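Researcher: Structure prediction, please.
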Amino acid sequence: MTYVVADNCIRCKYTDCVEVCPVDCFREGGNFLVIDPADCIDCALCVPECPANAIFAADDVPADQRQYIALNAELAKVWKPIVAKKDAPADADAWLNVKDKLHLLQR
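Model: Predicted structure follows.
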């Protein structure tokens, strides 16, 4: 099983999770992070670090967000690794509880 970044990360893109990942499995897009399932070792260290509560074990991804499993795998192949924490976008907190943000994803 791997971990998956889901909807609540879009436009929030906090990177606290990146700092604790022992295998550098996070990839960065313009306004979203993904986890490379080929590199994830299922350690779960990132889950409690995510201020947006956007990281789930693949088996626990909410039913209405299951498309993020494939999306993480797809985007991890083209996005570059992120290995150090960065500042969140200035408006990240405003987007924190907004639902259904997939249409806002910058590929």
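Model: The radius of gyration is 12 Å.
Researcher: Thanks, that helps.
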